[in-house]
Amino acid sequence: MHKKTASYTQYGMRQLLDTLKPEVRTLISTAQRLAGEKRLRAYLVGGFVRDLFLGASNLDLDIMVEGDGIEYADALSARLNARCIHHKRFGTATLVTEGHLKIDIASSRKETYPEPASLPEVKPGSILDDLARRDFSINAMAVSVNSDDFGMLIDVYGGCRDLKKKRISVLHENSFVDDPTRILRAIRFEQRLAFSISSKTLRYLSVASRKRMLQKLNLQRVRDEIMLMLQEKNPVAQMQRLGGLYGFSFLHPRISFSSKTRKLFESIELCLQWFSRNFSHRRQLDSWLLYCIALFEPLSASSTRQLAKKLALRRGEEKRLLDYKKSGLCILKALQKKAVAPSRVFGYLEPHSYEVILFLVAKAKNATLKRHVEDFFRRYNGIRHSVSGRDLSGLGITPGPLYAKIFRALIKARLDGKVRSKKEELVFVRRLQKSIR
Ligand code: CTP
Fold first, then answer.
1. Rounded to the nearest whole angstrom, what is the distance from the C-alpha of residue 139 to the centroid of ligand 1?
2. Structural domain for 398, as ranges
């Protein structure tokens, strides 16, 4: 029999499960029925169980089955009418329901690390093996969804105790050496939950730091964790703690969380709030990218490019980071002047992403520049011309790259109030035609 915690009886756990949203409860009942039919054991695990105790809403479920997880995932996705994505390499699957619940399903497994910081070797294992391979006690609990012991909590590593004591503890001494991304995860959960990393765990972490374990990782593995840290509610606290506990040399020797970077982060936070109050309907922002631009401030364009490649950032992400390096200063200078024609403001800002533009606002902290950006977001961006390609062809202009130039000129003329109607636009184009000839 698995060890149960004294503080959470099966009855108490069932009551806690009853507090879940109806769609989550229905899903758990379906998972239970299916496990019964397939004669395998299924458990809720990981962050979902942690957040269940914390009363934090979490629509990402982790289900672990003792048996074939992929086959179970396929059958569950058919019952829930959910999309199912297989991750063959890991023997796991992700389901996404029509109600946007996400369910990660995996077979319970045993992991061994052939070398420090390497990817683990994976073998099928029991539920206890699976809990033993996890990062922190608070993430290493399981709750049975099986009908014979529904709601039984398996908490071998004191997860409940650590939740009560608001403590992040690894399961064993080599946890950070086996998987150095856990250094970043420990900080992320500590800061998110306002917990403390336990003193023993801090000791293990400082050993891993002395061994420069993060430097031994392929940076692609670090990328996702850094992104997650920058997406948390308080990136300042996240980076401050990382700077204090480990530093940033694993990214680049010139990166640090100096007081200048901290101030920039604070200014970005205010800018993001301003954007979400006024313009959130316009676009969803990759807010982490603004913080990333701030972290990469001390780097030259070529070092930024190299680092972006090592981190395997997507092309669009790399482009935005480099775009700031290339054009940022020039825009900053130009838009701190009061009298700038709307068409020029448009010309400066339109080629750039919202992330780069907002970063400039955060960096400059200049009211004039902010006003230009506000006008751009509010009035200029998305402005349309009325003359169409067909109209241009009617004027005898042969289709080709010239059309784009004419449309751009029309937009600028609209912005500066030189044309206000389609009729005026047509006059404008005719005049343009003559000057081109
Ligand atoms: N896990 C681990 N070691 C890692 C990554 C993940 O042990 N390096 C385990 C933990 O048990 C974790 C679970 O896998 O709870 C799921 O991982 P993930 O989805 O990254 O974390 P969550 O705990 O769900 O965190 P979040 O709330 O940020 O989604």
1. 7
2. 389-436
